[in-house]
Amino acid sequence: MKSFSKLSAFSYQHSAVSGQRSAVSGQPSAVSLQRSAVSGQRSAVSR
To answer: 20 to 30 A Cα–Cα from 7, which one of 26, 39, 40, 42?
Structure first.
């Protein structure tokens, strides 16, 4: 049972790390959205 508890703890840590990675990957997409919005405003001003 000890080995099983270690395995479950390892899988839990792995899921937590994957969650942090997905959160970090979500930030760049938000930044790219802001950039596209800014570029849209610039194009509107240039018109």
So the answer is: 26
